[in-house]
Write a structure and sequence with these properties.
This is Secreted protein. The chain is 21% helix and 28% strand. It is of the alpha+beta class and 192 residues long. The strands form three sheets. Strands 1-2-3-8 form a four-stranded antiparallel β-sheet, with no helix packed on it. The radius of gyration is 18 Å and the shape is globular.
Length: 192
């Protein structure tokens, strides 16, 4: 009886910890305070207007550019640690092709729970080669991935802002590999 009670208590504590973490993550994605928004906004707002941005190919702006199928391009603009123990990766998905593309279903990954919630970037992962761990996109309490969802197609030349949220690797791990199905992997540095 004592072992059964201990096991149930541990499961309950783990469930509470995960639920609290996901709630904090979901709150971080919402309309938090004004002081947090500028930190995670694209670099164009920091430059003060319509000056040159990552779309003109400045060498220092994107952390990484990943090439995907049929002219899809993912430019990662930031990967920042949040106070709640999460990593938020922001970027832009662009169609460099000459025709409208349907977003491949493979980008959602192959987990049944994520696929059930529609098209997303839920297949993205961060790989910590130092700690030998892979981090998957977080989910909310309903099983929806904490990432951009609902993208079914993208017109030629169109750019769509995207985000993905992951559990944070240890603080002494600043570099990880970002991977998205059908795209070339890229090494990124976590800020914060």
């Amino acid at each position: 009886m004592s072992i059964r009670f201990t096991t149930k208590a541990r499961r309950g504590m783990v469930a509470m910890t995960v639920a609290a973490g996901l709630a904090l993550g979901a709150a971080g994605c919402g309309s938090g305070g004004d002081d947090k928004k500028p930190e995670s906004s694209p670099s164009a707002t920091k430059s003060g207007g319509s000056g040159p941005s990552a779309q003109e190919g400045q060498s220092g702006d994107p952390l990484a550019e990943l090439k995907g199928p049929n002219g899809l391009l993912l430019q990662i603009s930031s990967a920042s640690r949040d106070a709640g123990g999460f990593i938020t990766v922001n970027g832009e998905l662009k169609n460099d092709g000459d025709k409208t593309l349907t977003i491949p279903a493979q980008l959602s990954g192959n987990e049944t729970e994520i696929i059930r919630n529609g098209r997303s970037l839920g297949g993205a992962t961060l790989v910590d080669s130092k700690g030998k761990k892979r981090y998957y996109v977080l989910r909310d309490t309903d099983g929806r991935p904490l990432t951009t969802t609902g993208i079914s197609s993208i017109k030629s030349g169109e750019t769509i802002p995207v985000f993905m949220q992951f559990p944070a690797p240890p603080d002494d791990t600043p570099d990880v590999s970002f991977q998205l199905p059908m795209f070339a992997p890229a090494d990124i540095t976590i800020s914060g």
